[in-house]
Amino acid sequence: MKTHRLVVVLAVLASGLAPRLGAADGPYRKLKEIPIGGEGGWDYLSVDATGRRLYVSHATKVVVVDIDQDAVVGEIAPTPGVHGIAVAADLGRAFVSNGRADNVSIVDLKTLQIVGTVKTGQNPDAILYEPVHHEVYAFNGRGKSATVFDAKSGEVRATIPLPGKPEFAAFDPGTGLAFASSGVGTLTVARPEGPDKLSVVQTLATPRGSRTMTLDPKTHRLYVAAADFAPPATGPDGRPQRPQVLAGSFKIVVYEMSGPPGR
Q: Is there a contact between 220 and 175 (Cβ–Cβ < 8 Å)?
């Protein structure tokens, strides 16, 4: 069997790491909001810097946004239990992880039609495209593994066991900054200072519940998924239930660099 090599760089920002600069002093500021609307929750977002599109998981579909016009231009469906979207611009394809179906949809970027599926482990969540070997890595949450398949043929090449539940991280090679969004209403901007040290540059205030984000490497803008929530209800057992997204409130909040990153 062919040997597969995957280098995963995870920027883990510990809660005890105090920020050096306040939100007003850092390189990023809020620019605008892009309304999406509809009903249901969301997970990951992905930018196609070449095609100038933003792909947003939403309920059982993927919403496609033109990021130069800030307008919704289409959708990919059905994608049951959608989690992530990996874009292979060089192949004219996207790959969507469907957590409820235990598979990945292969999508034609021109037509936004699903042209095939690949079977994965249980609950494929985060997903990445590796352009050198034209491979896709689907990180299976409940399956505690990564499914590796050929992006051109859809042939599964390997299943890599992983200790624990795999998730995701962000990094901008153009500015050297790393980012971590959280559901408590903060987005941390940090700079690697060595192989095992991160220095916080800025802590941005974001809407509560905005736990996922993506980056446009061309403009260095950040896109954060957000919505308004109804007051939490109490279940039959007396415990508070998960807050529900208010219909029509789903949106993308855009942050831009207001100045040089600095040190």
A: yes
Q: Which two tokens stand for residue 56?
A: 């947003």
Total-model pTM: 0.84
Stretch 63-71: mean pLDDT, rounded?
A: 97
Q: Alpha-carbon distance 33 to 223, whole Å?
A: 9
Q: Which residue has the tokens 């962000």?
A: 170
CA–CA separation, 192 and 203 (whole Å): 15
Vertex 191 angle, CA 11 and 201, to 5°? 115
Distance of CA 240 to the CA centre of its chain: 27
Whether residue 224 contacts residue 210, with contact meaning beta carbons closer than 8 Å, is answered with yes
Q: How far is CA 241 from CA 45, 82, 114, 197, 235, in A?
A: 25, 22, 35, 38, 6
Cα 256 to Cα 177: distance, rounded to the nearest angstrom: 13
The listed range with the strongest mean pLDDT (106-115, 167-176, 186-195) is 106-115
E strands in 131-246 = 135-140, 145-150, 156-161, 170-172, 177-182, 186-194, 197-205, 213-215, 222-226
CA–CA gap between residue 68 and residue 86 (Å, rounded): 20
Which domains are assigned to the chain?
21-42+168-258 (no CATH), 45-167 (2.130.10.10)
Q: Starting from the edge strand earliest in sequence, which strands make up the sheet with 82-88, in order?
A: 82-88, 93-98, 103-108, 114-119
Name the token pair of 205: 């205030």
- Asked if 252 and 23 touch (Cβ cutoff 8 Å), the reply is no
